[in-house]
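Ticket #4471: structure output looks truncated?

Reporter: J.K.
Steps to reproduce: submitted the chain below (107 residues) through the standard prediction queue, then opened the result file.
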Amino acid sequence: MDSARLLLVSYHPESCQVPPADMLSHMFGLTPADASAAIGIVGGRQLAEIAADRGVKTGTVRVHSKTVFAKTRTRGQAELAALVTRVAFLTPPHDAEDASVAQAGAR
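Returned output as attached by the reporter:
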């Protein structure tokens, strides 16, 4: 007799780590600059903030963001964030110090 099964996964979204940029690059064919822009976008940062941190023009980051959306087949920040959150589950946990550095880099 078949029985019903249920798997419930619960997580706190703010404690979810961001996958490493090289993992995003490998999975989606992103350049390091594209991956950096993706991490910034997922972190809720404005394109101008990402550009200032990288020392490039906002238009440059805008081009990278369009490339990220095309290569990940997402249509905006919310879809990209959902995708990257799912990818984060594939990332081995970092120790506390690495996690805090990753979160600070994403800001």
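Triage note (M.O.): checked the attachment and the full token line is present. The chain has a mean pLDDT of 83.
Status: closed, working as intended.
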